[in-house]
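Entry 12.
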Amino acid sequence: MSSSDKHVDRDLDLSNAGRGVWLVKVPKYVANRWEKASSTVEVGKLKISRTPGQKAQVSLSLSESIMCLKEPGEENIPKEHRLDVSMVTRQTLGVFSHYTPNPNADAIVPEPEKLCLEGKIVQKLECRPYADSCYMKLKLESIKKAMVPNRQVKQLDKIVQNYKPVSDHKSNIEYEEKKKSEGKKAREDKDVVLEMIFAAFEQHQYYNIKDLVVKTRQPVVYLKEILKEVCNYNVKNPHKNMWELKPEYRHYKDPEQTTSQQPSTSD
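Predicted 3D structure (C-alpha coordinates):
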Protein backbone atom coordinates (compact mmCIF):
# COMPACT_ATOMS: atom_id res chain seq x y z
CA MET A 1 0.00 0.00 0.00
CA SER A 2 1.40 3.40 -0.98
CA SER A 3 1.58 6.34 1.38
CA SER A 4 -1.17 8.15 -0.56
CA ASP A 5 -3.60 5.28 0.03
CA LYS A 6 -3.15 5.27 3.80
CA HIS A 7 -5.95 6.66 5.92
CA VAL A 8 -4.94 9.81 7.79
CA ASP A 9 -6.08 9.74 11.41
CA ARG A 10 -7.22 13.09 12.81
CA ASP A 11 -8.35 13.95 16.32
CA LEU A 12 -11.98 15.00 16.73
CA ASP A 13 -12.48 17.92 19.13
CA LEU A 14 -15.44 17.01 21.36
CA SER A 15 -15.19 19.95 23.74
CA ASN A 16 -18.55 21.35 22.48
CA ALA A 17 -20.33 17.99 22.28
CA GLY A 18 -22.71 18.96 25.07
CA ARG A 19 -23.77 22.24 23.48
CA GLY A 20 -27.32 22.42 22.08
CA VAL A 21 -27.75 23.83 18.57
CA TRP A 22 -30.83 24.97 16.66
CA LEU A 23 -31.43 23.90 13.06
CA VAL A 24 -33.34 26.74 11.38
CA LYS A 25 -34.95 26.63 7.93
CA VAL A 26 -35.46 30.09 6.43
CA PRO A 27 -37.24 31.23 3.23
CA LYS A 28 -35.16 31.60 0.10
CA TYR A 29 -35.49 35.38 0.01
CA VAL A 30 -34.03 35.59 3.52
CA ALA A 31 -31.14 33.29 2.64
CA ASN A 32 -30.38 35.38 -0.47
CA ARG A 33 -30.20 38.57 1.59
CA TRP A 34 -27.96 36.91 4.19
CA GLU A 35 -25.57 35.71 1.48
CA LYS A 36 -25.17 39.29 0.24
CA ALA A 37 -24.32 40.62 3.71
CA SER A 38 -20.76 40.78 5.01
CA SER A 39 -19.61 38.89 8.08
CA THR A 40 -19.62 42.05 10.24
CA VAL A 41 -23.24 43.01 9.54
CA GLU A 42 -26.04 42.17 11.97
CA VAL A 43 -28.60 40.12 10.04
CA GLY A 44 -31.42 40.02 12.57
CA LYS A 45 -32.58 39.50 16.11
CA LEU A 46 -34.32 36.57 17.80
CA LYS A 47 -36.99 37.20 20.39
CA ILE A 48 -38.12 34.40 22.73
CA SER A 49 -41.33 34.96 24.70
CA ARG A 50 -42.01 32.56 27.57
CA THR A 51 -45.42 32.15 29.18
CA PRO A 52 -45.83 29.77 32.14
CA GLY A 53 -47.60 26.59 31.07
CA GLN A 54 -47.30 27.38 27.36
CA LYS A 55 -44.82 26.72 24.59
CA ALA A 56 -42.21 29.40 24.09
CA GLN A 57 -42.86 31.78 21.17
CA VAL A 58 -39.84 32.52 18.96
CA SER A 59 -39.77 35.34 16.41
CA LEU A 60 -37.15 36.74 14.02
CA SER A 61 -36.82 40.39 13.07
CA LEU A 62 -34.49 41.17 10.16
CA SER A 63 -32.12 44.09 10.62
CA GLU A 64 -32.36 47.32 8.65
CA SER A 65 -29.03 46.63 6.97
CA ILE A 66 -30.49 43.41 5.53
CA MET A 67 -33.68 45.15 4.44
CA CYS A 68 -31.60 47.75 2.57
CA LEU A 69 -29.74 45.11 0.51
CA LYS A 70 -32.30 45.47 -2.24
CA GLU A 71 -31.51 45.36 -5.94
CA PRO A 72 -33.27 47.65 -8.44
CA GLY A 73 -36.67 46.28 -9.35
CA GLU A 74 -36.67 43.79 -6.46
CA GLU A 75 -39.72 43.60 -4.22
CA ASN A 76 -39.61 44.36 -0.51
CA ILE A 77 -39.38 41.34 1.78
CA PRO A 78 -41.17 40.86 5.11
CA LYS A 79 -39.23 41.99 8.13
CA GLU A 80 -41.04 40.05 10.87
CA HIS A 81 -41.20 36.25 10.98
CA ARG A 82 -42.32 33.59 13.40
CA LEU A 83 -40.38 30.40 14.05
CA ASP A 84 -42.28 27.14 14.49
CA VAL A 85 -40.36 24.95 16.93
CA SER A 86 -40.26 21.16 16.83
CA MET A 87 -38.16 18.80 18.92
CA VAL A 88 -35.69 16.34 17.39
CA THR A 89 -36.77 12.79 18.18
CA ARG A 90 -35.52 9.39 16.98
CA GLN A 91 -32.64 11.11 15.29
CA THR A 92 -29.14 12.23 16.21
CA LEU A 93 -27.93 15.28 14.32
CA GLY A 94 -24.74 17.23 14.88
CA VAL A 95 -22.87 20.20 13.45
CA PHE A 96 -19.23 19.71 12.50
CA SER A 97 -16.57 22.18 11.41
CA HIS A 98 -13.41 21.46 9.45
CA TYR A 99 -10.49 23.83 9.88
CA THR A 100 -7.81 23.88 7.19
CA PRO A 101 -4.70 25.98 7.95
CA ASN A 102 -3.41 28.52 5.46
CA PRO A 103 -0.54 26.90 3.50
CA ASN A 104 1.04 30.32 2.85
CA ALA A 105 1.21 31.27 6.52
CA ASP A 106 4.72 31.75 7.94
CA ALA A 107 4.59 29.42 10.89
CA ILE A 108 7.50 27.65 12.56
CA VAL A 109 5.33 24.65 13.37
CA PRO A 110 2.63 23.99 10.75
CA GLU A 111 -0.88 23.85 12.13
CA PRO A 112 -2.71 20.56 11.73
CA GLU A 113 -6.16 20.23 10.25
CA LYS A 114 -8.92 20.22 12.82
CA LEU A 115 -12.29 18.53 12.89
CA CYS A 116 -14.62 19.77 15.62
CA LEU A 117 -18.08 18.84 16.83
CA GLU A 118 -19.75 22.22 17.34
CA GLY A 119 -22.85 20.88 19.01
CA LYS A 120 -25.82 18.57 18.95
CA ILE A 121 -29.05 19.68 17.30
CA VAL A 122 -31.79 19.74 19.91
CA GLN A 123 -34.52 21.73 18.09
CA LYS A 124 -35.70 22.29 14.55
CA LEU A 125 -37.21 25.65 13.68
CA GLU A 126 -39.00 26.70 10.51
CA CYS A 127 -39.06 30.42 9.76
CA ARG A 128 -42.44 31.56 8.40
CA PRO A 129 -43.51 35.09 7.39
CA TYR A 130 -46.76 36.65 8.56
CA ALA A 131 -49.46 36.78 5.89
CA ASP A 132 -49.43 40.56 5.55
CA SER A 133 -49.70 42.71 2.40
CA CYS A 134 -45.92 42.74 1.91
CA TYR A 135 -45.68 38.95 1.83
CA MET A 136 -48.77 38.61 -0.40
CA LYS A 137 -47.26 41.01 -2.93
CA LEU A 138 -43.96 39.14 -2.83
CA LYS A 139 -45.74 35.80 -3.33
CA LEU A 140 -47.76 37.19 -6.24
CA GLU A 141 -44.60 38.37 -8.01
CA SER A 142 -42.92 34.98 -7.53
CA ILE A 143 -45.97 33.23 -9.03
CA LYS A 144 -45.91 35.57 -12.02
CA LYS A 145 -42.21 34.90 -12.61
CA ALA A 146 -42.77 31.14 -12.38
CA MET A 147 -45.51 31.36 -15.05
CA VAL A 148 -43.26 33.12 -17.56
CA PRO A 149 -41.96 30.52 -20.07
CA ASN A 150 -38.22 30.16 -20.44
CA ARG A 151 -38.47 30.46 -24.22
CA GLN A 152 -40.53 33.08 -26.01
CA VAL A 153 -41.33 33.71 -29.67
CA LYS A 154 -40.48 37.20 -30.83
CA GLN A 155 -41.25 38.73 -34.19
CA LEU A 156 -38.29 40.50 -35.79
CA ASP A 157 -39.00 43.76 -37.57
CA LYS A 158 -35.52 44.03 -39.05
CA ILE A 159 -32.67 41.76 -40.12
CA VAL A 160 -30.45 40.58 -37.31
CA GLN A 161 -26.86 41.13 -38.40
CA ASN A 162 -25.01 39.44 -35.56
CA TYR A 163 -26.41 35.97 -36.21
CA LYS A 164 -27.77 34.22 -39.26
CA PRO A 165 -28.82 30.56 -39.18
CA VAL A 166 -26.99 28.17 -41.46
CA SER A 167 -29.18 26.57 -44.11
CA ASP A 168 -27.28 23.31 -43.88
CA HIS A 169 -24.38 22.32 -41.68
CA LYS A 170 -21.07 21.11 -43.05
CA SER A 171 -21.39 17.69 -41.40
CA ASN A 172 -24.78 17.10 -43.06
CA ILE A 173 -23.42 18.08 -46.48
CA GLU A 174 -20.43 15.74 -46.12
CA TYR A 175 -22.71 12.90 -45.02
CA GLU A 176 -25.03 13.33 -48.01
CA GLU A 177 -22.09 13.46 -50.44
CA LYS A 178 -20.60 10.30 -48.94
CA LYS A 179 -23.97 8.60 -49.13
CA LYS A 180 -24.32 9.45 -52.83
CA SER A 181 -20.77 8.32 -53.65
CA GLU A 182 -21.14 4.99 -51.88
CA GLY A 183 -24.65 4.42 -53.13
CA LYS A 184 -27.65 3.32 -51.16
CA LYS A 185 -27.30 -0.33 -50.11
CA ALA A 186 -30.97 -1.31 -50.20
CA ARG A 187 -32.03 -4.90 -50.67
CA GLU A 188 -32.95 -5.62 -54.28
CA ASP A 189 -35.08 -8.50 -55.42
CA LYS A 190 -33.27 -11.84 -55.29
CA ASP A 191 -33.56 -12.43 -59.05
CA VAL A 192 -32.06 -9.02 -59.76
CA VAL A 193 -29.12 -9.74 -57.44
CA LEU A 194 -28.56 -13.14 -59.10
CA GLU A 195 -28.39 -11.47 -62.52
CA MET A 196 -25.76 -9.04 -61.23
CA ILE A 197 -23.76 -11.91 -59.72
CA PHE A 198 -23.85 -13.97 -62.93
CA ALA A 199 -22.91 -10.91 -64.97
CA ALA A 200 -19.92 -10.31 -62.70
CA PHE A 201 -18.71 -13.91 -62.97
CA GLU A 202 -18.83 -13.70 -66.79
CA GLN A 203 -15.93 -11.27 -66.49
CA HIS A 204 -13.87 -13.07 -63.81
CA GLN A 205 -13.92 -16.53 -62.31
CA TYR A 206 -13.03 -15.53 -58.73
CA TYR A 207 -14.19 -12.60 -56.56
CA ASN A 208 -13.76 -11.56 -52.94
CA ILE A 209 -16.76 -10.30 -50.99
CA LYS A 210 -15.67 -6.63 -51.12
CA ASP A 211 -15.65 -6.55 -54.90
CA LEU A 212 -19.05 -8.21 -55.08
CA VAL A 213 -20.50 -5.67 -52.63
CA VAL A 214 -19.23 -2.85 -54.85
CA LYS A 215 -20.70 -4.46 -58.00
CA THR A 216 -24.10 -5.33 -56.53
CA ARG A 217 -24.47 -2.54 -53.91
CA GLN A 218 -26.16 -4.97 -51.54
CA PRO A 219 -25.76 -5.44 -47.77
CA VAL A 220 -23.04 -7.96 -46.95
CA VAL A 221 -25.29 -10.30 -44.95
CA TYR A 222 -27.97 -10.38 -47.64
CA LEU A 223 -25.40 -10.87 -50.41
CA LYS A 224 -23.73 -13.80 -48.61
CA GLU A 225 -27.08 -15.57 -48.25
CA ILE A 226 -27.51 -15.51 -52.04
CA LEU A 227 -23.88 -16.37 -52.76
CA LYS A 228 -24.12 -19.55 -50.67
CA GLU A 229 -26.83 -20.82 -53.04
CA VAL A 230 -24.93 -20.37 -56.30
CA CYS A 231 -21.26 -20.12 -55.30
CA ASN A 232 -18.57 -22.02 -53.44
CA TYR A 233 -16.27 -20.33 -50.96
CA ASN A 234 -12.61 -21.33 -51.33
CA VAL A 235 -10.74 -21.91 -48.07
CA LYS A 236 -7.50 -23.15 -49.64
CA ASN A 237 -4.86 -21.58 -51.82
CA PRO A 238 -4.37 -20.41 -54.51
CA HIS A 239 -7.83 -18.75 -54.38
CA LYS A 240 -8.30 -18.61 -50.63
CA ASN A 241 -11.17 -16.42 -49.35
CA MET A 242 -12.57 -16.07 -52.88
CA TRP A 243 -16.02 -16.91 -54.24
CA GLU A 244 -16.53 -19.05 -57.36
CA LEU A 245 -19.68 -20.19 -59.14
CA LYS A 246 -20.77 -23.74 -58.49
CA PRO A 247 -20.09 -26.14 -61.44
CA GLU A 248 -23.76 -26.33 -62.43
CA TYR A 249 -23.89 -22.54 -62.87
CA ARG A 250 -20.66 -22.18 -64.84
CA HIS A 251 -20.80 -21.40 -68.56
CA TYR A 252 -17.09 -20.95 -69.30
CA LYS A 253 -15.99 -21.94 -72.79
CA ASP A 254 -13.26 -24.55 -73.20
CA PRO A 255 -10.13 -22.87 -74.59
CA GLU A 256 -9.56 -25.76 -77.08
CA GLN A 257 -13.14 -25.54 -78.30
CA THR A 258 -12.81 -21.83 -78.76
CA THR A 259 -9.68 -22.30 -80.86
CA SER A 260 -11.27 -24.96 -83.07
CA GLN A 261 -14.30 -22.75 -83.79
CA GLN A 262 -12.16 -19.89 -85.08
CA PRO A 263 -12.13 -19.67 -88.92
CA SER A 264 -9.00 -20.87 -90.63
CA THR A 265 -6.84 -18.20 -92.19
CA SER A 266 -5.87 -20.51 -95.05
CA ASP A 267 -9.44 -20.37 -96.41
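Annotation: The radius of gyration is 43 Å. The longest helix spans residues 133-147.
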